[in-house]
Amino acid sequence: MMQRRLILAINPGGTSTKAGLYDSDDLIFEENVHHNPSELEPFSSTFDQMDFRRDIVMEILTEKGYKLEDLSAVVGRGGTFKPLASGTYRVNKKLLDDIKEGSTLQADHPSNLGALIAWGIAEKAGIPAYFVDPVCVDEMIDEARLSGHPILPRVSLSHALNIRMVAYKAAEILGKPMNQLNMVVMHLGSGISVNALRKGKMIDTNNANDDGPFSSTRTGGLPMTGLMKLCLSGKYNAGELKKMLLKKGGVFAYLQEEHVGKVRERAKAGDKKADLVLRAMVYQMAKEAGGMAAALCGDVDAVVITGGIAYNPWITDLLEEHLSYLGKMLVFPGEAELEALTRGVLRVMEKIEEEREYK
Description:
There is one protein chain. The chain is of the alpha/beta class. It has helices spanning 37-40, 50-63, 93-101, 114-125, 142-145, 160-174, 224-232, 238-246, 250-255, 260-268, 272-295, 313-323, 337-349, and strands at residues 6-12, 16-23, 26-34, 73-77, 88-90, 129-132, 182-188, 192-198, 201-205, 302-307, 329-333, 356-357. The two termini are 38 Å apart.
């Protein structure tokens, strides 16, 4: 009988903590604990939430009837660390110290807690802790880093975890190893990441907080001189501007509604503005994808679409109208971060790829 390999996967998000237990790649259970703002309000920083979220994961494990000694490995979502190559990393003291010290973090985000929580649980069990394809995966070619001014370089922050997982799935369908394929991969969620993957490397991506298409709540790229005037107008402070650009922008700014499915229902009912906003969002997605295809010199084996918005066939059908000239399109709706984390650990366990060391 094959020995069980129980892998506990953890994904701390802005308003939730997700945990799942896998036996190899078979899901045993998955839990998503939502946090009311009042629960998180007492914590002065994201880092301070670590014990609170770790205890939640341990409670889930206990309630499901499992003990620490049952586990083979623990994996947490990787955060906005310093730029790293893609792959599966063993959590080590250097990473823990860098997270706690904070100087290498590129943003304050709950994903930064994933490796810490995984380490805290794994250390007690005497098993390895990992993180996989963090938000900060940076494999950009040199040409992609220049923005137009040396003091404002382009930064690689993206939905790398889900993007690389669906790239692996696409490669299985296409019947070739991922490192032999070129793909444009689009993650369509509350933030939109569009990536150019050349032979498995993410050679270019938009940063969903800075540029690219607008999404349900983020503005994406904006007219630069207009934004400059807005910032200098004195009407808004930094916090208000940040909220306007990242939480209340995009579809919400136009329609006071961020749920794309609800906006689509409004459009179907005859709301012409809702219809225009959705078409404009898809138009911008397609333009970004076309740009990434150009980064691949037009040599594209497939356009791969993932993320929550990909559940809407009207959007994916319209994207196909824009992008069919690039060839095959594959759609993997949703965000399966727990599965992606587990698959990363399994690739190391099964010697498909080498474990990476954080330095």
